[in-house]
Amino acid sequence: MPEPKFEKGVWVCPICGFKAMSKKVVITHMEREHPEAIEEKPKEENKPAEKEEKKEDTKKKKGSVSKRKFKLGKTEIRLWDYEHLDMKDQKGWLMFQNRNYTATLHKKQVRVKLLTGEEFEGLIKTRDPFFVSLITKDGRKLIIHKGAIAYIEVLPGDEES
User: Fold this and answer.
1) Portions of the chain given CATH number 2.30.30.100
2) Going by CATH, does the domain composed of 5-37 fall within 3.30.450?
3) Which of 74, 117, 130, 146 reaches 20 to 30 Å from 55, CA-CA?
4) CA angle 145, 151, 125 (to 5 degrees)
């Protein structure tokens, strides 16, 4: 098959002079309008083997984001761009702890000072991404928004993990 020619910023069909901005458009034109000029290419039988090689690769491209998926024991781990990490298992809680400081204080005795100036002491539970629950020594359960906390201090008797 004759190749399209690039002349003065446009692609030109060498048979009839058809002009287009894209080489692919000219090739498609040649296949439709001039089928007699197209030489038959022998079909390769090795193409399925190439597809098998592509399936073995664990990386998948979706747009500009690279994506990998693998298993670690019973835990399924998905990686996007090597930064975002998603785990479908109880180990997801461990990753939540690493990304969230208040989660590392889960079930510890702490002193919490709010932006309003109030101070509370008690057992903190931090499973929610936006709120913490604090159970005081007199049995009250307080739900506190994390944005309202000025600081959290771990009490000396409960610093070991």
Assistant:
1) 101-158
2) no
3) 74
4) 50
Nearest to 132 by CA among 114, 158, 155, 159: 114
136 band by pLDDT with thresholds 50, 70 and 90? very high
The C-alpha atoms of residue 151 and residue 156 are separated, in whole angstroms, by 16
Distance CA 112, CA 144 (A): 10
Taking the CA atoms of the chain, what radius of gyration do you get in angstroms? Answer: 32
Tokens of 60: 């998948």
Pick the CATH number of 101-158 from 2.30.30.100, 2.30.30.110, 3.40.50.2300, 3.40.190.10: 2.30.30.100
CA–CA gap between residue 30 and residue 41 (Å, rounded): 15
**Residue 62: pLDDT over 80:** no
Read off the tokens for 142: 């307080």
- Determine the residue type at 90: Q
Concatenated DSSP letters of 73-99 = TTEEEEEETTTEEEEESTTHHHHHHHH
Q: What is the pLDDT of residue 98?
A: 56
The pair phi, psi for residue 78, each rounded to 5°, is -120, 130
